From TrEMBL:
Protein name: 3-octaprenyl-4-hydroxybenzoate carboxy-lyase
Keywords: Lyase
Alphabetical list of PANTHER family matching this protein: 3-OCTAPRENYL-4-HYDROXYBENZOATE CARBOXY-LYASE-RELATED, FERULIC ACID DECARBOXYLASE 1
Listed GO biological process terms: ubiquinone biosynthetic process
NCBIfam families: UbiD family decarboxylase (TIGR00148)
Span of domain 3-octaprenyl-4-hydroxybenzoate carboxy-lyase-like Rift-related: 103-299
GO molecular function: 4-hydroxy-3-polyprenylbenzoate decarboxylase activity
Any one of the GO CC terms: cytosol
Domain (3-octaprenyl-4-hydroxybenzoate carboxy-lyase-like C-terminal) ranges: 306-438
3-octaprenyl-4-hydroxybenzoate carboxy-lyase-like N-terminal domain location: 18-90
């Protein structure tokens, strides 16, 4: 869908928060909520119903916001499309990126205030989230770095534990940022980075796109915006950041230092292990006048949806290259928006669903279970998917099991059998994969697999038939 055909596209964080507030989807919290647990507990209780805005958390002068992307319908609304157009719109943006527009520092809102030699703990209101978290964490920070070999940027969201005034530890999974770090390490260099906190909703969503290496997600953000994203160069390195972001932390991932990080409550709703992690040295913090700090409550809807929707768009595109009759996909929330994939297929040949299952497993190593259903099943409705499994699946002929495959290192079930210690990196995330073909036969006898429907049920307007305000006094009805 081109930008002219779209409704209002929300390209500004403050404008989006104002819109949520005007439509009763933002709760303003009384001053004083403690940064340790209490703030996050309040945000968690509101998750998916209202964003939470804390004007003065724990007496801090910088407000905190959470949960402003906590419903699928809100994300579609921010993009200016319907929910049914969500994946296609994101996919089109990923396939047609727009180069960013570099602006001078004087025009960069994110550099209006500069803190040199900063104390992160004093400057920013960083919350402590879950019960056993090992201290305060930045959970909504977009980490931006350049490939030392090519100069192309990458954007990702990584959990970052604040250790001291200018030192933090970061978890990097074996993806693009980690590849950049290993290349810098091979050269004996630190990796310059920027951590962006408080981006607009579409840039935040774009940061989670699943792309090949050397593909700048900020250019996807520009495409979602409908115009090039304004970016500014950092003050201490050559990384480009969204010019209108709220807060930017500039620093370096140190070449040869490690510190203990974790435990931390992650998206599978379990704690990840305490391990030696790479260290970030903080050089400068810049921010807007009166900035807003964004925190994501781990494992709640904002966290799960920001990860799942870009993945769905990528998975759908990947599957449709080999199977044009794949109609839709959904990463279920019950599968933490990562592990369980539902695929809607217009089946044309027996055995085809199993090919689709195998293709899906190859598309992303996080996927642990794939269920393929027919075109009459709504993949975004878990109850319909379960009905399809209950009535169209037989385990002895319709199940695919693959042992010893690469899976998610954050899935705690993959650590079973590893003993008390932490498995070496090359063995972490070893997982089994499960595929279920819950489709009906292409040809079947009479109405054996015909879904029961009542004529007119999809077109009847109930409001035209129900008499508003009408009451019946059943005690006065004539006795038979």
């Amino acid at each position: 869908m081109n930008s002219e055909a779209r409704k209002t596209v929300h390209t500004d964080l403050r404008g989006w928060l104002s819109h949520l507030s005007a439509t009763d989807r933002l709760a303003v919290i009384k001053p004083g909520a403690a940064l340790e647990h209490e703030l996050v507990a309040i945000a968690k209780l509101l998750d998916g119903r209202q964003a939470a805005y804390f004007p003065q958390p724990d007496g801090h002068s910088i407000p905190v916001v959470s949960g402003f992307m906590a419903r699928r319908s809100w994300i579609a609304e921010a993009m200016g499309v319907s929910e049914s157009e969500l994946l296609a719109t994101f996919r089109a943006a990923a396939e047609q990126p727009l180069p960013s527009q570099l602006v001078p520092q004087a025009e960069a809102s994110c550099q209006q205030v500069v803190h040199r030699q900063p104390d992160v703990r004093a400057v920013l209101p960083v919350p402590t989230h879950s019960e056993h978290d090992n201290g305060p964490y930045i959970t909504a920070g977009m980490v931006i770095a350049r490939n030392p070999a090519t100069g192309v940027q990458n954007v990702s969201i990584n959990r970052i534990q604040v250790h001291g005034k200018d030192r933090m530890a970061i978890l990097m999974l074996p993806r693009h940022l980690y590849a950049f770090y290993k290349e810098a390490q091979r050269r004996g260099e630190d990796l310059p980075i920027a951590i962006v906190i408080g981006a607009d909703p579409l840039t935040l969503l774009a940061s989670q796109a699943i792309t090949q290496i050397d593909y700048d997600e900020l250019e996807i953000a520009g495409s979602l915006h409908g115009s090039p994203l304004r970016v500014a160069q950092c003050l201490t390195n050559n990384v480009h950041v969204p010019a209108d972001a709220e807060i930017v932390i500039e620093g370096r991932i140190l070449c040869d230092e490690r510190e203990m990080e974790g435990p931390f409550g992650e998206f599978p709703r379990y704690y990840s292990a305490r391990e030696q992690r790479e260290v970030i040295a903080v050089d400068v913090i810049t921010h807007r006048q009166a900035p807003i700090f964004h925190t994501i409550v781990p494992a709640e809807m904002e966290h799960l949806l920001l990860g799942s929707i870009p993945r769905e768009a990528t998975l759908l595109a990947h599957l449709q290259r080999s199977f044009p009759n794949v109609l839709d996909v959904h990463l279920s929330i019950g599968g933490v928006g990562r592990y369980h994939l539902y695929v809607k297929l217009r089946k044309t040949h027996e055995g085809q669903p199993k090919n689709v299952i195998l293709c899906a497993f190859g598309a992303h190593y996080d996927i642990k279970k794939v269920i393929v259903v027919d075109e009459d099943v709504e993949v975004h409705d878990p109850q319909q998917v379960e009905w399809a499994v209950a009535t169209r699946f037989q385990a002895d002929r319709d199940m695919v099991v693959i042992s010893g495959a690469q899976g998610s290192a954050l899935d705690p079930s993959t650590t079973v059998g590893a003993g008390d210690g932490v498995a070496p990196v090359h063995e972490q995330g070893l997982s089994a994969k499960l595929g279920l073909d819950a489709t009906r036969p292409v040809v079947y006898h009479e109405h054996t697999f015909t879904r029961v429907r009542v004529p007119g049920e999809d077109s009847i307007d109930l409001t035209a038939w129900i008499e508003p305000g009408r009451r019946v006094d059943f005690t006065s009805l004539a006795q038979s």
